[in-house]
Amino acid sequence: MAQRDSSLARGIAKAMLDGFNRHYRLFRGESARAKHRFETVDWHGQQRAQRERIEFYDVRVRECVQRLEKEFQAGGQPMEVWHEAKLFYIGMLVGHLQPELAETFFNSVTTKILHRTYFQNDFIFVRPAISTEYIQIGEPPESPTFRCYYPQPDRLDEVAAAILRDCQLQRPFADLARDIARVGRALAGILGEARIRANFQLQVLASLFYRNKGAYLVGKLINGFDEMPFCLPILHDGQGRLYVDAVLHTERDMHTLFSFSRAYFMVDMEIPAAYVQFLRSIMPRKPRNEIYNSLGLAKQGKNLFYRDFLSHLGTSTDQFRIAPGIKGMVMLVFDLPSFPYVFKLIKDYYPPQKDTTREQIKGKYRLVKQHDRVGRMADTMEYSEVAFPRERFEDELIEEIRRFAPSQLEISDRDGDGSEEVIIKHLYIERRMIPLNIYLQETFDAGPDDAQACRQMENAVIEYGNAIKDLVAANIFPGDMLWKNFGVTRHGKVVFYDYDEIEYITDCNFRQVPAPRNEEEEMSGEIWYAVAPRDVFPETFGPFLLGNPRVREIFMRHHADLLTPQFWQQHKERIQQGHVYDVFPYDQARRFGQESAGPAGITGITGTGAAGGPQP
């Protein structure tokens, strides 16, 4: 019997690893094909691959579950078999190049089969069993994680030429000599007047990072104890030729590029942990889970986030509370003050004006997950059956959940350890931001004589309009554009985070408010004209948004076009014609000379926004 059980456990472990290896082979293959799509200007193919790749993981998990049930009747096996299967699996990961991802895959499959209702149990990897430290020692020499260059400090243009040549892009540069000179000068500027040390070198990640219509070369300059990041965005001009658009070189640049509000990169990685380690060396304050997310490895990001969350719970004592701000009609939001995320669950009941369902709302969140978020929509992590210690919840919050989302709440000692837990059936978790209405109110309270508050107000209003225009470029209509549905990040960016009313721009009908036909209609306090479900009247936005005269003046100076149906109709038509907008994850002022830039974009101002050059 013992021999048979060992054979069974070994078979389960091998089938599980086969399932993961198949997943990562397909994931990596799709990521590698991003290079060809970039070279052939296949922007719609890039968007389609981006959406489809997100589904790969769940499909492979289902396939693996089906195989384990069919071949091993896995769900009916005793726990001793699963304990042994996990030990065999750990042994099989020694020398594996993606062990941390394989452990997460094991967790996903196991919880599907064993129907575990939350994550802390003995049959999954709550903590990693295989270290990814020094994992590069075993990488194939023909495909290193990064390349090293050892230039002469007064000949940085030569290393710039080598870096661009080694990208091996099958597309000509519009003016390669110009780009080499620009990059060389920028690298010299990063180095400054520093004394050159013995270890002076440049390290560049081997794979380009592909997203939207750009390819990004990421590296760092090392000199003594200093490590200075740099990134070269490579774009197509109007004739389909390549050019380097900028040299990004600050930690803030990197954080913006790898923001939680942007779509996932396509990157061809043999050893993901090595890429993460490299990126953390240039973004030490960036959580590892967010880096894995940005690389398209969202399940690993979720796994790491949950480990970080458990660790934080163990070292903190504050309580979960109802999140500050105006309460939403659809989502109930709570947070832990010491933890930089918010937790959102869908209410059971909605007011009459919210004609929606739980499944429709979940569908909106899926849409955002699969869409190009262009830096203006917060990424969310979705969890089911999450257990929290009951003593960490304020009673007021418990009563709020009981009142508005009773179907999502269970309080019990489900694991039998003698402690009650709050179990939330389904929730979303996203980065905490300052709600824009609260941010603006703080500037109002400071008064018109506070110069810094006035600058903050102007930046927030301009950023709000830019955010909407970037969403338009991504074919997204926010639906509810009230200030409370947008947040301000630590870098001053305005990001949208309330998704229950979003629609595609191409599904909306943007209309002018009809002229009243008589005095009765003109004086009516009610809408007297016919309105279809997806009709939008942009000129009606003003009364809801621009009650404050100072805000109105700033908004009308920069974004008055948002109150005209013509703006929305024009961009809807361009999107319907197949146009794909450029979206720059860096300030327009950082770009090189105007000979590289396309025509004026949607935002029309200096700042991170969307530019609408003709599609090559």
TrEMBL record:
Residues 318-588 form the Isocitrate dehydrogenase kinase/phosphatase (AceK) kinase domain. ATP binds at A323, P324, G325, I326, K327, G328, M329, K344. Residues 604-616 have a biased composition (Gly residues). It is found in: Cytoplasm. It comes from the Bacteria. The active site is at D379. It catalyses: L-seryl-[isocitrate dehydrogenase] + ATP = O-phospho-L-seryl-[isocitrate dehydrogenase] + ADP + H(+). Residues 595-616 are annotated as: Disordered. Residues 13-316 form the Isocitrate dehydrogenase kinase/phosphatase (AceK) regulatory domain. One of its GO terms (molecular function) is AMP binding. Its EC number is 2.7.11.5, 3.1.3.-. Pfam families: AceK_kinase, AceK_regulatory. Keywords: ATP-binding, Cytoplasm, Glyoxylate bypass, Hydrolase, Kinase, Nucleotide-binding, Protein phosphatase, Serine/threonine-protein kinase, Transferase, Tricarboxylic acid cycle. GO terms for cellular component: cytoplasm. InterPro entries: AceK_kinase, AceK_regulatory, Isocitrate_DH_AceK. GO terms for biological process: glucose metabolic process; glyoxylate cycle; tricarboxylic acid cycle. Bifunctional enzyme which can phosphorylate or dephosphorylate isocitrate dehydrogenase (IDH) on a specific serine residue. This is a regulatory mechanism which enables bacteria to bypass the Krebs cycle via the glyoxylate shunt in response to the source of carbon. When bacteria are grown on glucose, IDH is fully active and unphosphorylated, but when grown on acetate or ethanol, the activity of IDH declines drastically concomitant with its phosphorylation. NCBIfam families: PRK02946.1 (NF002804). Belongs to the AceK family. This is Isocitrate dehydrogenase kinase/phosphatase. It comes from Corticibacter populi. The lineage of its organism: Bacteria, Pseudomonadati, Pseudomonadota, Betaproteobacteria, Burkholderiales. The gene is aceK.
